[in-house]
Amino acid sequence: MTLRSFNWPHAIACLLVAVTAVLLSFGALVTTYEAAMAVPDWPGTYGHNMFLFPLGQWLHGPWDLFLEHGHRLLGAATGVVTLVLVAVAWRGQAAPAVRWLAVAAVGLVVVQGLLGGARVLLDDKTVAKVHACTGPLFFAVAVAIATATRPQAATSARRISAEPPSPRVIVASTAAAGLVIASYLQLVAGAQLRHMDATVDPFTFRWLVGVHVAGAAIVAAVAFVLAWANASAPAATRGWSWLIAGLIVAQVLLGCGAWVASWGLPSGLLPADWQPARAVVARSTTGALVVTGHVLLGMAILGSSVVLWIIGGGLAARGDVGRLPGDAETQRAFA
Amino acid sequence: MSPPPVLAPAPAAIPSAALPVNAESLAVPRGFAACWAAGSQLVRPRIALMVLATVWAAAWITAGADRLPAGTIGWLLVGTALVAASSSIANQIVERDTDRLMPRTARRPIASGRLGVESAAAATAVLLAAGLAIQTRACGWPPAAAAFATWLLYVVVYTPLKRRTPLNTAVGAVAGALPVAIGWLAADGPERLSAGDVAGTLAVAALATVLYLWQFPHFMAIAWLYRRQYAAAGLRMLTVDDPSGLRAAAQSLAAALAMIPVSLVLAVPSGSVRLFLAAAIAAVAYAVATVGFAIRRDDASARILLFTSLGSLLALLTAAVVLGTPA
């Protein structure tokens, strides 16, 4: 393998997934510890250029400052990696879908950075919610690029496209797409609860909790349909299906833990002495880990769903080979 | 489930003379209904309605709790409708030769010769002048200037660009998003911004961005469905330059994904949880339809995308106005 033949888009996309995972972890902790306003100015940090803020003050300063400033630095690093990815994708021989997904990633990372700044400058909870929903979307796009650029993609596209899909494959393909959507919408609903305004009325709160719990049931049901539909699929597809099913079981347990950590043991839908201001804060270390873990596991489920959707043939199972001109181009569309 | 339909082996390049327009199909009907139909073809009321809805929603969101007087907003919409009608006629004057080559547009009044170019040009000028005058009278010159800029971009830049480059959609989408500026300016957006109302302007900027991004999947679906007609007319749509549809699908996918977070920003001024969730569902539904088109790239998925695009935009605008209204 030479430097020129090395699969740079895949390597950089994997790096992007890794950096984004760390970034999202910091972001989730920022929300858990309500540290978003620990640095009240933007794009600078306490009057310094963000990149020139004294290292000692960052590493040995307050925990909230460590989280928020670290989140910003990681955001900047993610932006740089995304720009490198789009440059490599457009300079090389990447497929159109990969190129445009990379463009979408650049758009998303810019929007996300601006949202982060607006969240601080406006001190607005709704902007924080949008910020919280854009992060997982960006992560999903990064995972999609990494999966679509993997070396095995070309051969699997050819293999899958060569034969018409069976009903079970169609169920699996549809369920995989459905799981991506449902798990993302669960993160959207979860973001509403995480960034709940203290003035929200109890009816809205109960309604949101109901939506989130019902969404969990839907995600679990779709995941197990997917595991059933992929029972006789290739090993990798089967493995990802069962991994997701396992993650969802863990997620339900963590969700119960997050409920207790945030609102106490349920008596009825809510504790009788529930106060909205208490609703989203987990102060103890264990509680913080449980609540943050619930968010991160949700993102892991989303990312895994994207991987499964693509490797299971979601983008190629109904491929157009033999149906349109330019088969070679079609085959490398997502390869 | 039956396999997807097999397209005719086509085309590294779609044959440009493949679609002769049947002269019989151009027979001119007479009577009131025919006049009404001709008028509709000329001013394209559905597109004008979409523009009016956009202007109204932008003004509504900008004004927030301070309602604009009904008379002001009414005259603004009348003026906007006239400018939109003018731009539609001007567009048909410029495109009359290519319109004749496509069955979809060959029956339009100017292309079919039922309306002379001179008369159409006069109507364009009168409608434009009247529309701008009414807007200026009702809301001052800034909204009228924005309307005129939209007219120029659509008629003078976008329309000729359709024959030159597939990038025309990126330019035309700006013209599609500019009506938001009309509503924003009419509702004193700049003054509100300088007075510190950042959130309202943020939501309006989000609405403009949503409209810009929304147009990519929407127009790519249309460009796919009518790709052979566009090719016959020599229009450089992306689906003509790349008949596999891959580039159109990829651009649509990128725009639909980027539209999700931008749609959520619509909920910022009100902080409404319901608007947030409604925007998320509408934008994700649109993204799903776009993914479906990206995967299949056939007429059925393009039609689904087209209908979903209209439904999701309607849902977004309705939710922004109904759920995003401050108490």
What are the defining features of this structure?
heterodimer; A: 335 residues; 2 domains; 11 helices; 71% helix; globular; B: 327 residues; mainly alpha; Tetracycline Repressor, domain 2; Four Helix Bundle (Hemerythrin (Met), subunit A); 72% helix; 0% strand
Low-pLDDT sequence parts of chain B: 1-19
SS element count, helices of chain A: 11
Rough shape of chain B? Answer: globular
Q: Write the H/E string of chain A, N to C.
A: HHHHHHHHHHH
Strand content of chain A: under 5%
Tally of alpha and pi helices of chain B = 15
Highest-level CATH class of the largest domain in chain B: Mainly Alpha
For the biggest sheet of chain B, the summary is:
none
CATH architecture of the largest domain in chain B: Orthogonal Bundle
How many domain units of chain A?
2
CATH third-tier fold name of the largest domain in chain B: Tetracycline Repressor, domain 2
Shape of chain A: globular
Note poorly predicted spans of chain A: 275-280, 316-335
- Class of secondary structure makeup of chain B: mainly alpha
What value does the Rg of chain B take, in angstroms?
21 Å
Average pLDDT of chain B, rounded to a whole number, is: 87
Q: Please state the structural category of chain A.
A: mainly alpha
- Approximately what portion of the residues of chain B adopt beta-strand conformation? under 5%
Oligomer: heterodimer
